[in-house]
Each structure stands twice: as C-alpha cells, then as structure tokens.
Amino acid sequence: MRVLVCGGAGYIGSNMTALLAAEGYEPVVLDNLCKGHISAIPQAEFVRGDLADYELLVATLGDYNIEAVMHFAAFIEVGESVTEPLRYYNNNLSCTQNLLSAMEASGVRKFVFSSTAAVYGIPKDVPIPEDAPTEPINPYGQTKLAVEQMCRYQSQAGKLSYAALRYFNACGAGNNATLGEDHKPESHLIPLVIQAAMGKRGEVKIYGTDYDTRDGTCIRDYIHIDDLCRAHLLALDTLEGNREIICNLGNETGHSVREVIETVREVSGRDFKVVETDRRPGDAPMLTANAARARGELGWKIEKPELAEMVSTAWQWHTSHPDGYVD
How far apart are alpha carbons 149 and 239 in whole angstroms? Predict the structure, then answer.
C-alpha cells in the first residue's frame, strides 16, 4: 500500500514513515519543511509542498497512486494558538479541508488523523474515556476537534473511512533511537529537562507545586513514540468501508513533573537547576488516558511502558544530536 504521510519530516511523521517502510508499505512524504527536517525522512519518496496547494495534492495523490493518507502536518503549540488563532485555523483546519477535498477528488478514502487529548479541555473524569465531553479551551484543541467533526460528516456521506487518534504526550526517540524530537522552540517537558541536563538550558521550571497530586506537581500520560506509531499502523489496517475510529492513545499511567525530572537525572547521571514557580492558567492537575478502546478495537498494546525507557531513548538521541537535526 502506498501511503501519503503529510508532515512526514516532523517528529511523529518521520517515525511513522520509518515504521511504514519497515513493515513493507511504500510511504511518500509531503512536507513544506516549515517545522520538519529533511534529514529526518528515512526510506521514502519526498514531495516538498504545502497542504494549501490543492493542485499539488491532487497531482501527488494521482502520480504516486496513493491508497491512504496519514496527517501529521498541524501546528501544535497551545500558547501560540492563543496568540495567533487565525494561523492555527488556517493551517490545522482550512488546509485539512483542502486535503480531504483533494482525497475525495482523487478517490482516496482511507485517512488516519493525528488528533489530541486537547479536545477534552479540562476533563471532569480521569482517566479520560473517548465519550467524555469535548470542550477544548484553546484554538489548538478546537481546530483538532473541528477536523474530527469534518471527518465524521464526510464519512457519513459515504466518502471517507477515517481514524482520529487522540494523543496524550508522545515522547522518546523511535526507530532504534535514531529519530528524535527537535522543535524550535521546544515546549515539551522531557526534551526541555534533557536540555538542562546537557547544559544547553540554565534551568527547568516547575509551574505549580500545590496541585492535589502525589507530589504536588502536574501529572501527565507519556507514551513512547514507537508505541504511538504502531497504533497508527493498526488503525490503517482496520479502515474499510465507511469505518469511523476514535481512540485515545496513552500509557494509562501518569507521571508527575518531579518524576520526569528525577528520571532524567537518573538516566543522564547529571544534576541541573530546578526552579519552582506559580501555576500556569489552564493546567489541569492530572491528565491520563483510558485507552481500552484502542486495545479492544485495534488490538493495540503498549510495548514500552516505562518512563525510564522513554527518557533513555530521548537522551540517546539528544546526546548524539546535540544541536538537533543538521537542516
């Protein structure tokens, strides 16, 4: 099967591309490289382009005989989505509509969408099931939910079979620790703490130490990138007819900010400065997934559940790429 991986030069997209190639699929990467890295694209055809370019999308789908599409080309920074909402609505929603229109015109029905736990907002019940209220509190989560709704209606019209996979916190380096996380600027906790351990950052901040959690700091659900990508492959293999799949992807075990910091210290053997400061607006005390549906419907299981292994693969990648990717 030939699969178009939109955003395939980014963190999750590049790992997905590597897994597809390893499992005998023929991935084709489409990326404008505004966030991705050409050197992160392993074993795949590459098309440099933007999801806003309808004609390019139709041509690519046809020229490469694409049978399915995976979409990882969204902007992901929650804070930026609040200050630049139209930028997020344009890229995350309008460009995805353009992609779905090109798929319809080209007769491509299978679609795996990178969604997010941010669609739930601040949930009332934790672990979070898929039928929890979807009440996003920022444009990032709202645009992802709007794409899910667009897919649902397109499927009900008999034109799409899709999976919307709601991630919690993807982390680690995949493909034998050769494909890591390199965002500029970086906002994710594990790489931020690793940068401090490497001496590339002066300190790590803990935002709030008085939450109703086991150590007073926020708890989040971390999932290794390899486990995340395997779920996408299982979802792809499940899409037939007008199938609709909505699944949480999480480890179902939460780790606190302090626990992440201590794990990085243990893995790296290094100490670094930690600063405790005030809470950030909108941070929930605990966000963990109920992933029973993914296990039941997709036959998915976590193979790398330990935080130490997630951090170890990330540490291996960052120390071998101290300045990130070369391009």
Answer: 18
Rounded Cα–Cα distance for residues 314 and 41 (Å): 18
Asked if 243 and 156 count as a contact pair (C-beta separation under 8 A), the reply is no
Tokens of 114: 């990178």
pLDDT one-digit tens code per residue, 208-245? 999 999 999 999 999 999 999 999 999 999 998 778 99
Domain of residue 200, residue span: 189-221+252-320
What count of residues does the chain have? 327
Of 11, 140, 167, 211, catalytic? 140
Same domain, 242 and 302: no
Reduce the DSSP state of residue 5 to 3 states and report it. strand
- Give the residue from 233, 249, 265 where a domain finishes: 249
Q: What is the CATH number of the domain that holds 275?
A: 3.90.25.10
Region for residue 8 given its phi and psi (left: phi exceeds 0; alpha: psi -120 to 50; beta: otherwise): alpha
Q: At what angle do helices 307-320 and 189-197 cross, to 10 degrees?
A: 60
* Catalytic residue check, 211: no
Q: Confirm if 298 and 232 have CB atoms less than 8 A apart.
A: no
Q: Which residues does 320 contact at the CB level (< 8 Å), separation at least 6?
A: none
User: Total structural domains in the chain?
Assistant: 2
- Residue 123: CB atoms within 10 A of its CB come to 18
- The predicted model scores a pTM of 0.96
Contacts of residue 306, defined as CB under 8 A and 6 or more positions apart, other chains included, come to: none
Vertex 282 angle, CA 281 and 288, to 5°: 140
Residue 231: phi, psi to the nearest 5?
A: -65, -40
